[in-house]
Amino acid sequence: MDRISEEQRSWNMSRIRGKNTQPELIVRSTLHRLGYRFRLHRSDLPGKPDVVLPKYRTCIFVHGCYWHRHSGCKYAYEPKSRVDFWQKKFRDNVERDKRKRKELERLGWNVVVIWECQVLPQDELMVHIQNIIYK
Length: 135
What we know:
This protein is of the alpha+beta class. The chain is built from five helices and four strands. It has helices at 6-14, 22-33, 65-68, 83-106, 122-133; strands at 39-40, 51-53, 58-63, 110-115. A four-stranded mixed β-sheet has the order 1-2-3-4, sandwiched between helices.
């Protein structure tokens, strides 16, 4: 049983953003500080990557651990109510992520996922980004 009303839960869920999330803004800020030029949410690419580095042919997705099911992460917990609904939603999200990643790779793009829990601290993020791009 949910502790809040259905209307309140709906309102809460409607406030969850899909673009320009705090982890995404931190990744973009870090890339900018490192001197990288990038584009945002290119709708001509499968999955509309959060950040696209055209020079390096690299797409970056900044995934929320909860919504995209970061394996073993404390933020990817299981909801207590409507379990069947949420399991299907999460399964669909993960399958869509795999599909879009394969499509991008087929088009010759490098695909990188940065998880919400990897964003902080920022100095570690800077090293992580450098390693990703220059691998």
